[in-house]
# Entry
Amino acid sequence: MAVKTELDPAVAARLKRTPDGLVAAIVQEHGTRDVLMLAWMDDEALHRTLTTGRATYWSRSRQEYWVKGATSGHHQHVRGVALDCDGDALLITVDQTGAACHTGEHTCFFDDLPLASNGEGEQS
Amino acid sequence: MAVKTELDPAVAARLKRTPDGLVAAIVQEHGTRDVLMLAWMDDEALHRTLTTGRATYWSRSRQEYWVKGATSGHHQHVRGVALDCDGDALLITVDQTGAACHTGEHTCFFDDLPLASNGEGEQS
# Structure
């Protein structure tokens, strides 16, 4: 994350980063509106995403930039990027080629957790 | 986050938490499939969400649990909770009452960032 970035300073000024300089990036598929994955971006990853149209993340485990699809072929072509109200999360809308998840599933969120019957939640 | 939790140990074992014990929670509206917000959960917030059917988060700024809608009336009734492939993010599907965002907007992601023309991204 020592990379010097050309991210628009007006955008950079609105980001509220984690202590390691990142904002969360939620990835949603344009056509299906499925939420595909959660990744992380630093300023330079956001700059590359906005300017190349290819979703580019910061890998916390590998400590390097990661163009989605560069090895898998499962590219994400960026349709839109929105910043949330407090500047610490991005919503990336993409056209996804192939599976978004490294497991081969369409989305990373394929593991449903058991909900208790939520009668209490219906009262108001 | 010193609260003792009754979260199912089988679920707890699958969570990969930040150093402060949290997982990211992406909130999506059931009907519209709009992505509404990003919040954070510790084990107890997830336990409460799964068992009460009311979306409950951990506020990093206030350092307390936060039942969405408790003060605003803008409740989130939980339809489903899915864990992602690497255990560090949750997708919470909700029926949203009123606005999800504290600004009064339906979703927190109302601020579109400018995309460069992405001809480069169309090549493969």
Summary: Residues 102 and 121 of chain B are 35 Å apart (CA to CA). The longest strand of chain B covers residues 76-83.
